[in-house]
Amino acid sequence: MKQEKQISIFIVDDHAIFREGLAMIIQKDGRFIVCGEAEDAENALTLIKKTRPDLVIADITLKDRSGIELVKDLKKSGLDIPVLVLSMHDESFYAERAIKAGARGYIMKHETSANITAAIQRILSGRIYLSDKMTDRMLDSLTLGAAPCLPSTDILTDREIEVLDMIGRGLTSGQIAANTNLSKKTIGAYREKLKHKLGLNNAAELSTYAYKWVEKKGQ
Known about the structure:
By secondary structure, the protein is of the alpha/beta class. The protein folds into two domains: 136 residues, Rossmann fold, CATH 3.40.50; 67 residues, Arc Repressor Mutant, subunit A (Orthogonal Bundle). It is 54% helix and 12% strand. It has ten helices and five strands. α2 packs across α3 and α7 crosses α10.
């Protein structure tokens, strides 16, 4: 009996230990094999072009730029490779942003290995993978004709959204820098950009806006 060809998967995450753990989960299922790994978007794009995997699993927070931007870059490059975004970030906002960018699914990092395998299978069958809660939320939005969530943030880049989210969750500039692999000086620059784009006058107004934004998107 002829053995079926294994499905190749490429992992993009800036933490080596997490990549190793995820690879073990994926390869435990004999149908899948990890064909490559990268810790940043630039190297990922180069290696994905060479390896041509069947599916890419990418974190949102990478060393150079957002994983959602990687999704966009893959699309621009003409690579018709489905992407599953796997992240610690709250799906209530990031999932919709990832799908709009071209990703085929979004799953939280705390999900079980069974769910990750199910997500891979669903995406490879041509469907989109989201949690039941997120699927209901997006369908309600379409059915009820609701306005896009928090439209004032549409002008922000994916990285700016990440920083805004962490400010709203009470993280300091030092903690944000550590989580994004950026310097405190760079985070300070992002804070200034956010104030300018959102029409805010000072750090206190930015913190208040960010807190309310995080609270609202979690509803």
